Amino acid sequence: MRRVRPGTQASRGGAGSRAAGEERALTSVAAGDRFQGEEPCDTPRLWHVTLSVSGKEAPLPEVRRALEQLAHDHPFFLTSRYAVDHAEIRYWEEARDLHDAAAVALRLWGEHRQTAGLPPWEIVGLEVIDRATYHQRIAEGYGPPPASPVGVHPF
C-alpha cells in the first residue's frame, strides 16, 4: 500500500511522472509580490461585532455566570460588560461578508439563551465593522477602546 498526501495522486510511472532521483523544480515568490488576479470573494474575513441586549432586571450573579458560559461556548469571544438590565458583548466573527457576520450576531443571543442560561432580553443594538475600520478607529482615537482586560465585567 502506498501512502499519498491528501489532494495528490500516486504516480504509477505514467505520463508526467519523474524518473527515479529526478528533482522537481520549485518556484518561489519574491518578497512583496502580490496576487495579480481578483481576490476571491468568498474568503472569510474578521468582523468586530458589538451586540447590545436589554430587558427586565436579573440578578447580577446569574447574568455574570450566563455571560461566562456564553464566552466558553462561543469562539472569538472578546469581552462583555453587564448590569442587572442590559449587557454589551464584543467579539470577533469570521465570515464571508458583513451580511453573514450580522446574521450570526443576530442569532447569537437566542441560540445560546437556553444552553448558557442567558436572561430573556432582546437585542437592542448591533454594530458590525471590518477589521481595518476597527483598527482605524482605534488609531484615530474615536473608536471603542481595545477590549482589555478580556472577559466578563460589570459596567
Kindly describe this structure.
This protein is of the alpha+beta class and 155 residues long. Helix content is 28%, strand content 25%. It contains three helices and five strands. Strands 4-1-3-2-5 form a five-stranded mixed beta sheet. A hairpin with a 3-residue loop joins strand 2 and strand 3. The termini are far apart.
Backbone CA Rg:
24 Å
**Count of extended strands:** 5
Biggest sheet strand order reads 4-1-3-2-5
Regions with pLDDT < 50 over 5+ consecutive residues? 1-17
User: How would the global form be characterised?
Assistant: globular
Helix content: 25-40%
Q: Which percent band covers the strand fraction?
A: 25-35%
Order of helices and strands: EHEEHEHE
Summarize model confidence as the mean pLDDT: 79
Oligomer: single chain
Number of helices in the DSSP assignment: 3
Largest sheet: 5 strands, mixed
Distance N to C terminus: 62 Å
Category from helices, strands and their pairing: alpha+beta
Helices and strands, with pairings:
Layout: E1 45-54, H1 60-73, E2 77-82, E3 86-95, H2 98-116, E4 122-130, H3 131-140, E5 151-154
Parallel strand pairs: 2-5
Antiparallel strand pairs: 1-3, 1-4, 2-3
Q: How would you concisely characterize the structure shown here?
A:
With about 160 residues, this protein is an alpha+beta fold. The protein is about 30% helix and about 25% strand.
